[in-house]
Design goal:
alpha+beta; single chain; 251 residues; six-stranded antiparallel beta sheet
């Protein structure tokens, strides 16, 4: 914890009016020993969190922090754009609506609406779930660039959660191909017994999948015709959100 606090103090020394700082400046502003500041600053440079101007020996914020900041802004814009669409979808279906983003080999919940029906799936913002056996996870995994998709598929440990969980990677690859073909992912009780979900991907202006949205509910309310209607509603919703984010289909 002390190391984290020291790193934060050093990074927090920078601001808009002081974007470049010498070792002495960082030492003074952070209140840390000079040797400690030098050691941490050099380590941060190796990770591209800071950059060092070799001619002046001054430091500045590195590209890695810019990338993380851009990711944060993108996720906030994503939530702002998607909120009204998700709320309307929630009102139309009465079921739990969930938006997730990729983080490593998992999908993380960042927004949603929980059903008010007596029997419904719970929503926990910040909760992590597997990529390979959830609708939100498979909807993202299926539409990643092929090299990234294969890298993740190879690294996944396909742990069985229910009797319907896919635990064979060749079968998973076939499932992902089917998802790309129809545009939606189905979780037919693969992650939790009795819970069915349909999910679809959201794309940004660079045509990369950035998130997914799902509709989930108990199996007795999510029959064939209902799933077909929800799938169509979901495709329309993610299409509008993607368009708002700058996604355009090549003509």
């Amino acid at each position: 914890m002390q190391s984290v606090e020291r790193i934060v103090k050093i990074i927090s020394s920078f601001n808009l009016s002081e974007s470049r700082l010498s070792l002495d400046d960082l030492t003074k502003k952070s209140g840390l020993p000079k040797a400690t500041v030098y050691r941490i600053a050099e380590a941060l440079c190796e990770e591209h969190i800071l950059e060092k101007d070799r001619s002046t020996s001054s430091y500045r914020i590195g590209i890695r922090l810019f990338e993380l900041g851009s990711l944060y802004l993108s996720s906030m814009r994503l939530k702002d754009v998607a909120f009204i669409e998700m709320e309307e979808l929630h009102l139309q279906t009465g079921e739990t609506i969930h938006m997730g983003i990729l983080d490593g080999t998992e999908v993380v919940s960042i927004e949603g609406f929980e059903s008010v029906k007596s029997l419904h799936t719970k929503l926990f913002i910040g909760k992590r779930a597997p990529l390979y056996c959830t609708a939100v996870g498979k909807a993202i995994l299926a539409f990643l660039p092929e090299s990234e998709r294969e890298r993740l598929a190879n690294s996944l440990q396909l742990v069985r959660h229910t009797s319907k969980t896919i635990t064979n990677k060749d079968i998973l690859r076939e499932e992902l191909a089917n998802i790309r073909s129809r545009g939606t992912a189905i979780d037919s009780g693969e992650n939790e017994d009795g819970v069915v979900c349909v999910g679809a991907p959201i794309f940004d202006s660079s045509k990369e999948v950035v998130a997914s949205i799902s509709i989930s509910g108990p199996v007795f309310r999510m029959g064939g015709e209902v799933m077909e209607r929800y799938s169509e509603l979901l495709r329309e919703v993610v299409s509008r959100i993607s368009f708002a984010l700058g996604y355009r289909v090549d003509v």
